């Protein structure tokens, strides 16, 4: 075997509550209802350049596509879904707890929903699958939204109270992830202003760095007070950022500044508070001054995202200096035809392997996602799953690439 991974390596996939569960009521579900018509109307302008436009057109122009609704009905079918993960040899699984279920009204915690997640964890453990539990994968309860959401300076207090409660209720969780990709929310909701609450304002964005960093720091401490042995971290979305022209000072400056805000600032603000680093890798940004993307795009996903698996090597090498265990908590592509997925997973893993050989302490890989799911403001047409979902019948169908990934897992390499 050419690429043999370290003993005990974690292999699995990730999901998030709002994208798979169905039946959620939170800031996003409300926003979806208010924006579905608009998003359907804008689809042609946004997506008609994609090579698969003819195939996705009907769905992308249908307002229903933008309503998460019952999603994959994973809330009711998690046992069946974990059977599939088990059959594919996964030994770890990342999922998120939906805060709006746990605390639907301020300060009132719902015992039935807590029990639900206890059962989810039990179901994983019963299959020898280690749970990685995310506390915040972007959605917030309506009452918190009404207070301004993540920009409220007391957001950290509310969030860490919820985190502490979860640590008390689920004491056997070994791996906690406080926040998912804070910088994605900062840029999409407060920088570009496309996601709820659609507030395009650089000063607001800077403020949210602070409230979210404090949320992580406070939650980190509270979880440790309850469970001193737990491993706590947050998920950082890290892109491979480079200047378009290596000898252009302006391109280099553009890349440097972008890298600071997207990869480094949040990590600096939370510096002492991680037991591990969690990395989601999707993007390569080759930047020309003052900010134009000049990627080659030799291969792209169904969403037009460049497939650039070698970028993960550079991202991992950059983290070596932190001297913490690293988990790749998301990596994947939208590929309805399952054409590139096997190639993409293998190429990514070759680059992860290379980083490990050079001393980077990578301990796990989670493919995004176990299931096709609801992709935020894009809706249901992007197909990220190892497992295909028929949204009419809710039937699950394992894609060929998932079996290839299973072979890698069984051999702990390839
Ligand atoms: C990540 C998100 C995840 C999913 C993938 C495609 O940024 O964490 O929820 O949408 O992108």
From TrEMBL:
<keyword id="KW-0326">Glycosidase</keyword>
<dbReference type="Pfam" id="PF00232">
    <property type="entry name" value="Glyco_hydro_1"/>
</dbReference>
<protein>
    <recommendedName>
        <fullName>Beta-glucosidase</fullName>
    </recommendedName>
</protein>
<dbReference type="GO" id="GO:0008422">
    <property type="term" value="F:beta-glucosidase activity"/>
</dbReference>
<dbReference type="InterPro" id="IPR033132">
    <property type="entry name" value="GH_1_N_CS"/>
</dbReference>
<dbReference type="InterPro" id="IPR017853">
    <property type="entry name" value="GH"/>
</dbReference>
<dbReference type="InterPro" id="IPR018120">
    <property type="entry name" value="Glyco_hydro_1_AS"/>
</dbReference>
<dbReference type="GO" id="GO:0005975">
    <property type="term" value="P:carbohydrate metabolic process"/>
</dbReference>
<feature type="active site" description="Nucleophile">
    <location>
        <position position="330"/>
    </location>
</feature>
<keyword id="KW-0378">Hydrolase</keyword>
<dbReference type="InterPro" id="IPR001360">
    <property type="entry name" value="Glyco_hydro_1"/>
</dbReference>
<comment type="similarity">
    <text>Belongs to the glycosyl hydrolase 1 family.</text>
</comment>
């Amino acid at each position: 075997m050419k690429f043999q991974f370290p003993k005990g390596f974690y292999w699995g996939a990730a999901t998030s509550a709002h994208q798979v569960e169905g039946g959620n009521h939170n800031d996003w579900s409300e926003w979806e209802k208010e924006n579905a018509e608009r998003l359907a109307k804008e689809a042609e302008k946004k997506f008609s350049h994609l090579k698969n436009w003819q195939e996705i057109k009907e769905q992308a122009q249908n307002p229903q596509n933008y309503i998460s609704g019952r999603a994959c009905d994973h809330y009711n079918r998690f046992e069946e879904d974990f059977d599939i993960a088990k059959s594919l040899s996964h030994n770890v699984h990342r999922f998120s707890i939906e805060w709006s279920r746990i605390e639907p009204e301020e300060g009132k915690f719902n015992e039935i929903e807590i029990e639900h997640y206890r059962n989810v964890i039990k179901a994983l453990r019963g299959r020898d699958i280690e749970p990685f539990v995310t506390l915040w994968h972007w959605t917030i309860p309506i009452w918190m939204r009404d207070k301004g959401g993540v920009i409220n300076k007391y957001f950290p207090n509310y969030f860490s109270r919820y985190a502490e409660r979860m640590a008390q209720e689920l004491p056997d969780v070994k791996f906690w992830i406080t926040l998912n990709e804070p910088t994605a929310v900062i840029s999409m909701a407060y920088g570009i202003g496309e996601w709820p609450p659609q507030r395009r304002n650089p000063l607001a964005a800077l403020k949210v760095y602070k409230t979210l960093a404090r949320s992580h720091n406070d939650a980190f401490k509270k979880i440790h007070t309850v469970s001193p042995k737990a491993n706590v971290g947050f998920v950082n979305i890290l892109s491979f950022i480079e200047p378009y022209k290596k000898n252009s000072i302006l391109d280099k400056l553009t890349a440097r500044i972008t890298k600071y805000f997207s990869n480094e600032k949040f990590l600096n603000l939370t510096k002492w508070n991680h037991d591990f680093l969690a990395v989601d890798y999707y993007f390569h940004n080759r930047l020309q001054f003052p900010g134009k993307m000049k990627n080659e795009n030799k291969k792209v996903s169904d969403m037009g995202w460049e497939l650039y698996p070698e970028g993960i090597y550079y991202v991992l090498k950059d983290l070596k200096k932190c001297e913490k265990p690293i988990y790749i908590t998301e990596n994947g592509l939208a590929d309805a035809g399952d054409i590139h997925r096997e190639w993409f997973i293998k190429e990514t893993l070759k680059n992860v392997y290379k980083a490990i050989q050079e001393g980077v302490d990578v301990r796990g890989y989670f493919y995004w996602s176990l299931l096709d799911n609801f992709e935020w403001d894009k809706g249901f047409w992007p197909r990220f799953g190892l497992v295909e979902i028929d949204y009419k019948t809710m039937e699950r169908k394992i894609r060929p690439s998932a079996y290839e990934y299973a072979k890698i897992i069984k051999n702990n390499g390839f």
